Description:
The chain is α/β, with parallel strands linked by helices and 476 residues long.
Amino acid sequence: MPTQTTMENPESAKLQLQRDNFYLFCEQTSEFEWVDNWHLEHVAGKLQSVSEGKIKRLILTIPFRHGKSQLASRALPAYFLGHHPNHHVIGTSHSATLAKKMSRDVKKIIASDAYSEVFPGVALAGTKGKDAADEWDLAGARGGYIAKGAGQGVQGVGAKLIIVDDVYGSREDAFSKTTRDKISDWFENDLKTRLDKDGAIVVINTRFHHDDLISYLETQAASHPEADQWELINFPAIKEDDADPADPREIGEALWPWRMSEAELESLKLTRPDIYWCAYQGNPTPPGGTLIKKADILFHGGWRTLDLADATIIQSYDLRHGGQGKHTSFAVAQLWAKIGPNAYLLDQHRGKWAPDVTLDKILELNESALWQRAGSIYIENKADGKSLIPMLKKHIAGIDPVEPKGSKEGRVMAVQPYFAAHNVYIDKYAAYRDEFIAECTMFPAGTNDDQVDAASQALNKLFNRAAPRNVVALFG
């Protein structure tokens, strides 16, 4: 039953609702056209729980231009500061420029008449300058806002709320292992240290790559019971299954038809599947694979079932890069044979070996009768290969240092037609089978690419090597 105050002053009751309900607050203070949709209300409810201290760690991966930044990076800081004017918010993005733009958007909300009606007495201080965007304060309170680009140091005051909005500036940045490692280290060892006791973090990210910041956070949560445990919201642009009880749609329905219809999304899926799957479905890898399709990797029954008498057999190595820390990559040794038009992966060994262990491993492999059948030994002349190749040449004949040409993607694209034509086979019973298939089909968005590198190197040599010159024809 309405209270007397509500009945006598409905405008006051409306403003109280906007103070108490983040979704209504967003609708009231938005400078853009506001089109209601169930997913906006659901996300707003979670963000309100963040403001109220009920959710401490939240990840949002809903599609491009479907409201996540408007809700989480623009409206939430203003709403949070309205309720907690003595606390700070840190807002980050992939660049300082974009972080400052978000900061100005938050200031614009706080400076609006609509905000002043909802939160009377909460206003911007003038001490930092009217146009300040990297750091500003509230008038008559201890709280304020700090804007930082990814990788920038965050010194000084802590924050009760940290918002991380798309820390990778491009798909290329997300595909760079160096950049991904730097972002994870920055988040863990710099940004997170500025969080006040019982503070909250909201991470917004487009899933360009399986080994991104979200993967890092999920791995930490799964590996350590005491690590931060994250709540994930991922509503794909097109619903694919009924796995998420919070999603009321029928399978095949668009998330926000006002923004993008089923027809528009299907067109995007056909013309730009890479963007469709990562930016709109929250999945860096399309079902079935990206460059290399799962259906195009065929099986043989083991090297003993093959006639290797006239085969061209080679060894291919992609050696470890990095020190002994958590970002060290794998070393991979592969043995391949070409019989007629087809290439067969006969054997593979893989590990995070130190250089001395890698040296012993290669020498050990070359003592086996099977690996001794190789006529050529290809080792990428990078990373540990640079130091190991001269030492290996003292013990093993046939070593051919390889200077990789072009990008990893380009080298895989060069051999992709052989997969598509069903000319590539792997051992059906090998222990490495599943991890090899997973890495190939996830490339270039997978966590690792060492097996793919070794395979593309081998296949480029087996299929694209210049044919032997005919001596008789040469000399007439």
